[in-house]
Amino acid sequence: MVIKNPKIALMGIGGSGKTTLAADLHRILGVPLISECIRTAALELGLDTISEIDPQTRLVLQTVALSRQKSMEWLHAASGFVSDRSRYDYEAYFAGFFGQNSPVWQTYLRLSRIAATKYDLLIYVPPFTGTPEDDGFRLGEEFQILEQNVARYLREFCGDSALILESRSKTDRCQEALAFIRG
């Protein structure tokens, strides 16, 4: 899979190593990095943490983060990019928080899919064993079931259309992704 200016998005739950891997791929491939859209959106909204926010604020946060993600993807589409999240991550978390049968989910899904950038490669980054450090943005123990559902949604969604990393170490994950990208 040798693609000039690839549009690569990583998928997975919080604390799985997506940002680290995205930064490594960005450095090696020389394409722009799209990173931390949810954290940036939270800070813009005056939130220091996302672990304990009310549903209305969560709705605004998820929508602002998705809009930021899509804007950054559009901005860098011609040059290619590596992103530490995909719009599918936002969909999965939104479904987990609000339910896939809710009218607001259907609206969010349409927003996610309108004028969406087509990824050249999706990479699913499986979770590390153990509980990730809770930094206020990685969801703590009370959200473990949500995280499991998000992981299942993303794995089911990507099916055969994504690289599902098998490696467990950060170095091996980067080498596995690069081997796939470079064919």
Strand order across the largest sheet: 2-3-1-4-5
Uncertain residue ranges: none
Q: Quick one: CATH superfamily?
A: P-loop containing nucleotide triphosphate hydrolases
Rg, Å, rounded: 16 Å
Structure explained in plain terms:
The protein is α/β, with parallel strands linked by helices and 183 residues long. The chain has one domain (7-181): P-loop containing nucleotide triphosphate hydrolases (Rossmann fold). Helices cover 50% and strands 9% of the residues. It is built from seven helices and five strands, in the order βαβααβααβαβα. The chain has helices at residues 18-29, 37-44, 55-76, 87-98, 103-113, 144-158, 170-181, and strands spanning 7-11, 33-34, 81-83, 121-124, 162-164. Strands 2-3-1-4-5 form a five-stranded parallel beta sheet, sandwiched between helices. Helix 6 (144-158) links the parallel strand 4 and strand 5 (162-164). Helix 3 (55-76) packs antiparallel against helix 4, helix 4 (87-98) runs antiparallel to helix 5 (103-113) and helix 4 (87-98) packs across helix 6. The chain starts with 6 loop residues before the first strand and ends with a helix. 30% of the residues are buried. The model has no long low-confidence stretch (mean pLDDT 83).
